[in-house]
Amino acid sequence: MTKIDNSYIADQFSLLAKLMDIHGENSFKTRSYSTAAFTIEKLPTELADLPAEKFVSIKNIGDAIGKKITQILTTGELPLLREYIEKTPAGVLEMLQIKGLGPKKIATIWKEMGIESIGELLYACQENRLLLYKGFGEKTQLNVQETIEFFLKSQGSHLYAEIEAYANDLDQQLNKQIPGHLFALTGEFRRQLPIIDRLEWVTKADGPTVKSFFAQHQFSFEEGPAEDHYTTLFFKSPEGVLINIYCVKTGYFQAVLFRTSCSAEFLEEWTGRTGKTYKDDRQPDYPSEEAIFEEAGLHYIPSPAREQATTITRAASSPLPTPIQPGDIRSIIHSHSKWSDGSNTLEEMAKACIAQDYEYLVISDHSKSAFYANGLNEERIRAQHQEIDELNKRLAPFVIFKSIECDILNDGELDYSNAILSTFDLVIASVHSNLKMSEEKAMHRLLRAIENPYTTILGHLTGRLLLSRPGYPVNHRRIIEACAANVVAIELNAHPRRLDMDWRWIPAAVDAGVPISINPDAHSVEGYAHVRHGVLAAQKAGLTAAQNLSSMPLDQFKNFLAARRAPK
């Protein structure tokens, strides 16, 4: 075993003190371990070089801590620390790396807010949740948010929304600083996957030229495999972003671009149908990707839709319908104002919609059980509705619809009586509490909520947070069937950290006649921009504007609600 130095021992006691603090243990014990850590770190002599009996004579050590030092020196670990690590969620341990978060604040985040990962904490910052708890101000929340964002950038995987600006900037640099050698983004980014593990380019530039560019920008380099048509070069940016560059041979640019922008499932089906791999067989010099589809006798499939084998079957018989575009969104459905946990007033949210040419706004603040989000009780609902009525008179023809993001309670009931629910134009029903549940429990809650006659939209179906929380298990097909039977739309929550429901289930919902509603879940006027990321995810499923609730013109939406308010 490698010799254990004082720094290692001090770190053990320091971490123990912090974890005991988080768990609310006796402050005297916690402080004694923290003081011991400080003392050990400053010792001029290595503890490993001293006999054990000497430990107790060192100030701030004593007999009990001396025995624990012996345990560390003998076994390499501190058993008491291991106990605390085992009963602390890994995400809570990670929070200790976030500047501005001490044990007391982490205890509040975990025990009172119910947050167990850095990703969940970032989402809470974006929703202004921290401001509702003692010890957290706007400055603290902003510092925590910025530190987490910096931390997550170095972890390998990235949300599409977080890596998009970096990818586009690097793409411009490559094409500008290496002129005459076309660089085209490909891979996961071109397919618009919600999570990006690496950025990839296909280029006509040669290896030495590419290596020279990245060396100048302090990227690390690793030689990759050489195929018949291209060589792969691996790079890693100083920020930890992984890069693949495919340097193609003359005449194979379009073939390699096509191959690298398809999923494995899609490519397997393609190869079975056409007999071509575009990897080790000779190909003509295609002028474009469209020419590849023409040769195969298939209608063109955009790269975001090159995921599932069934898409190839559909493209064999007829052109794919035009997928939804960001400009097809006519409204903001699912948004929060200062009435609950939003950053802007209701009037500011409405005027921002008007400025961005949206036709209407569905304001859906949190319901009363969401106390952590300043949810609305019955009295405040009446007051908000009065403000909405006044704003609708002033802002006409723009319309604000009265809605609520109503908590689905543990038994599947909604957060208000039917008498209160009937005062809303529409209700978004969502699960926000007790997310750790079995599929049986989750399905019971969701199905009861769907069957409620006032549920209009089922919000963020699984409660997932990408790269942070997997979400509770559900039977998607049964949910879709229930929504079809009860005339309930399913939300595609467009927040880049949610994108829930998952795009893979959208075709099944559409086939069942269930409308999808691309909603930003905006907690500020800036949050309206999330709509675009929902659209990018929906494009992967081939969703059209006609199949999306938030693409309805105002009159059509009013008719939808009027028909929907009839008893189920």
Can you summarize this structure?
This protein has helices at 6-22, 27-42, 62-75, 79-86, 90-95, 103-112, 118-126, 138-153, 160-177, 187-190, 207-216, 253-260, 264-274, 289-296, 309-317, 346-355, 378-395, 418-421, 439-451, 476-485, 506-511, 530-540, 554-564; strands spanning 158-159, 183-186, 195-196, 199-203, 220-226, 230-236, 242-248, 331-333, 360-366, 399-407, 426-430, 457-458, 489-493, 516-519. The chain has 568 residues and is an alpha/beta fold.
Structure description:
With 568 residues, the chain is of the alpha/beta class. It is built from 23 helices and 14 strands. α13 (264-274) crosses α15. The chain is globular, with a radius of gyration of 28 Å. The termini are far apart. The mean pLDDT is 92.
CATH superfamily of the largest domain: Metal-dependent hydrolases
The name of the CATH topology of the largest domain is TIM Barrel
SS-derived structural category: alpha/beta
Please work out how many helical segments DSSP would assign: 23
Number of domains: 3
Uncertain spans: none
